[in-house]
Specification:
With 132 residues, this protein is an alpha/beta fold. Helices cover 25% and strands 36% of the residues.
C-alpha cells in the first residue's frame, strides 16, 4: 500500500491521543493507494482490543464513498505489544477480509512502528507500506 507520511503521522497521533486505550479508524483510497485517514471511537474502550464504534463506521464509510473512494484499510494501535495482529485481531478480520490492516505499535512510545497486513481466512501476511 502506498501511503503519505502525513497519513502515517495522523495514525500515530491518534494512537498517542487515545492512550491508554487502543485507537482505531478507517482508511480511504483506491488501487492500493491510501488517500484519507478517518478516526473512529473505540467502542471497546480498552488497551486490550478495539471495536470501531458502529455509528462512526457508518458515518465514515458514507464519507469515504461520497469522496469517490473505497475503504482500503482499517487501522488500530497496540499500546503494549509489537505491530503484529493478535489472535483477537485475526478473529475480527474475518468480518472484513478485503481491507488491509495497519497496526501502530506504541510499545516504545518514543519510536512508534506502523506495519500493514492482509488477514484472510485466519492467515496473516505482511504487506509492504510504501511511505511517500
Amino acid at each position: 500500500m502506498r501511503i503519505a507520511r502525513e497519513l502515517i503521522d495522523e495514525i500515530v497521533a491518534h494512537a498517542r491521543d487515545d492512550l491508554p486505550n487502543e485507537c482505531c479508524g478507517l482508511i480511504g483510497g483506491r488501487d492500493g493507494h491510501a488517500s484519507s485517514v478517518h478516526r473512529a471511537r473505540n467502542a471497546a474502550a480498552t488497551w486490550l482490543r478495539y471495536e470501531v464504534h458502529p455509528s462512526d463506521q457508518l458515518r465514515i464509510i458514507d464519507r469515504i464513498e461520497a469522496d469517490g473512494e473505497a475503504m482500503v484499510g482499517i487501522y488500530h494501535s497496540h499500546t503494549k505489544s509489537e505491530a503484529y495482529p493478535s489472535q483477537t485481531d485475526i478473529n475480527l478480520a474475518a468480518s472484513w477480509p478485503d481491507p488491509l490492516y495497519l497496526i501502530c505499535s506504541l510499545e516504545d512510545v518514543d519510536a512508534p512502528t506502523v506495519r500493514a497486513f492482509s488477514i484472510r481466512d485466519g492467515r496473516v501476511e505482511e504487506v509492504d507500506l510504501d511511505v511517500v
